[in-house]
């Protein structure tokens, strides 16, 4: 593994050549918001919150999927980026019905947290207020499309870690929706193992355990590295 | 499932395996054989080929070329591109829907004779508004002219 050196916000930094920009930026203690990124599952580059400016490219690049390169010069908090992140967050909030006051994740929600960090106190766009259903057919969990931001963490964890691939995405654009099996109710799915990984990785209240009330649902993100590290060290026996 | 159908599916499965389990070509073949993609044949395929059902459904709903309900004998396509829209394609659509007695989200008539759909541009803006019935293109249409043209297909 070779080492490369690059500039992040005009500071010289060294990194392993197989690292992605996001990892290197975070190692420097620089905070950039992410929603679709999660340690332990593949990168998607979908939420566009981790966009960074790279000298020599007039496009903004998603740090989570951009590999490091020798001599590259990266800026993480330019005026343009701060403005764009603000807009991206507003668009995320305007797409579905994100009503924090009645949400099970109120106070523990990543979307809420990142919006507050970015200083989004109002949305300049018209809310789309789509008419979306809630799937409560599963015995343990509920899927509320109104709170989904389509980060696809649940889809990826179901496929890559659990190996069931019960969840996927249907449709295109604003009509996209998370589905279970052939768009059947979740409770009727035969491939679902009820492991609950999708619920634990969901950044919002779109997936939650039944029986939790407003503000009561807390997600345990650490479980994923716990499972994956255990697998690597062959700690699990059954 | 009937034996005949299973034999057809088995044939598609064998061809797909040689092709490297390509989801799009499986679905295209299913649609070609049965006229539309049936849910039970997708389920059969998911069990047989180790491709998750959810993945099939994602591809099915992403591409507008796939249909999950039976289609009419004649396919009427009204263009709703920018030019056709300005030239009044919406009026043609509502007139045709009224004439074919389509309610709500229905796209296929009860007798199975017509399926009405709209596309975003057929690339023939100079003769807008455009309506295509099966493969035949009708340019510079009006609601009344289109109703007259449609009569020939009703026999």
From TrEMBL, chain A:
Residues 80-119 form the 4Fe-4S His(Cys)3-ligated-type domain. Keywords: 2Fe-2S, 4Fe-4S, Homeobox, Iron, Iron-sulfur, Membrane, Metal-binding, NAD, Translocase. GO terms for molecular function: 2 iron, 2 sulfur cluster binding; 4 iron, 4 sulfur cluster binding; DNA binding; metal ion binding; oxidoreductase activity. It holds the Pfam family Fer4_Nqo3. Residues 2-80 form the 2Fe-2S ferredoxin-type domain. Residues 139-170, 183-212 form the 4Fe-4S ferredoxin-type domain. PROSITE patterns: 2FE2S_FER_2, 4FE4S_FER_1, 4FE4S_FER_2, 4FE4S_HC3. Its cofactor is [4Fe-4S] cluster; [2Fe-2S] cluster. InterPro entries: 2Fe-2S_ferredoxin-like_sf, 2Fe-2S_ferredoxin-type, 4Fe4S_Fe-S-bd, 4Fe4S_Fe_S_CS, NAD-red_Hydgase_HoxS_gsu, NADH_UbQ_OxRdtase_ferredoxin, NADH_UbQ_OxRdtase_Gsu_4Fe4S-bd, PSI_iron-sulfur_center. Gene3D superfamilies: 3.10.20.740, 3.30.70.20. GO terms for cellular component: membrane. It comes from the Bacteria. It is found in: Membrane. Belongs to the complex I 75 kDa subunit family. This is NAD(P)-dependent nickel-iron dehydrogenase diaphorase component subunit HoxU. The lineage of its organism: Bacteria, Pseudomonadati, Thermodesulfobacteriota, Desulfobulbia, Desulfobulbales.
From TrEMBL, chain B:
Coiled coil: none annotated. Gene3D superfamilies: Glutaredoxin (3.40.30.10), NADH-quinone oxidoreductase subunit E (1.10.10.1590). Pfam families: 2Fe-2S_thioredx. Keywords: 2Fe-2S, Iron, Iron-sulfur, Metal-binding. Binds 1 [2Fe-2S] cluster. This is NADH-quinone oxidoreductase subunit E. SUPFAM superfamilies: Thioredoxin-like.
């Amino acid at each position: 593994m070779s080492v490369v050196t690059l500039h992040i916000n005009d500071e010289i930094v060294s990194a392993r050549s197989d690292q992605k920009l996001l990892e290197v930026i975070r190692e420097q203690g620089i905070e950039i918001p992410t929603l679709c990124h999660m340690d332990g599952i593949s990168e998607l580059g979908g939420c566009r919150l981790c966009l960074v400016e790279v000298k020599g490219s007039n496009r903004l690049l998603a740090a989570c999927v951009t590999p490091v390169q020798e001599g590259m010069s990266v800026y993480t908090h330019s005026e343009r980026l701060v403005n764009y992140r603000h807009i991206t967050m507003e668009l995320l909030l305007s797409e579905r019905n994100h009503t924090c006051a009645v949400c099970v994740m109120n106070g523990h929600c990543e979307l809420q947290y990142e919006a507050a960090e970015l200083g989004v106190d109002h949305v300049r766009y018209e809310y789309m207020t789509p008419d979306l259903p809630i799937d409560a057919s599963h015995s343990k969990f509920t899927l509320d499309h109104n709170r989904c931001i389509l980060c696809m963490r649940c889809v990826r964890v179901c496929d890559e870690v659990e190996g069931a691939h019960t969840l996927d995405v249907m449709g295109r654009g604003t009509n996209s929706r998370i589905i279970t099996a052939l768009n059947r109710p979740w409770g009727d799915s035969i491939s679902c193992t009820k492991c609950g990984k999708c619920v634990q990785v969901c950044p919002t209240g779109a997936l939650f355990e039944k029986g939790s009330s407003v503000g009561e649902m807390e997600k345990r993100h650490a479980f994923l590295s716990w499972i994956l590290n255990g697998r690597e060290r062959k700690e699990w026996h059954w | 499932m009937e034996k005949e159908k299973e034999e057809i599916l088995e044939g598609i499965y064998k061809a797909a395996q040689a092709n490297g389990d390509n989801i799009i070509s499986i679905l295209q073949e299913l649609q070609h054989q049965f006229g539309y993609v049936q849910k039970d044949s997708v389920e059969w395929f998911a069990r047989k080929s180790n491709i998750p059902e959810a993945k099939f459904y994602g591809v099915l709903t992403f591409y507008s070329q796939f249909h999950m309900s039976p289609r009419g004998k004649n396919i009427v396509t009204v263009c709703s591109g920018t030019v056709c829209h300005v030239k009044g394609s919406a009026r043609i659509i509502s007139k045709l829907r009224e004439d074919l007695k389509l309610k709500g989200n229905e796209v296929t008539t009860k007798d199975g004779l017509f399926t009405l759909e709209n596309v975003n541009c057929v690339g023939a803006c100079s003769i807008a508004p455009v309506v295509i019935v099966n493969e035949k293109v009708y340019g510079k249409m009006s609601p009344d002219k289109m109703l007259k043209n449609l009569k020939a297909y009703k026999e």
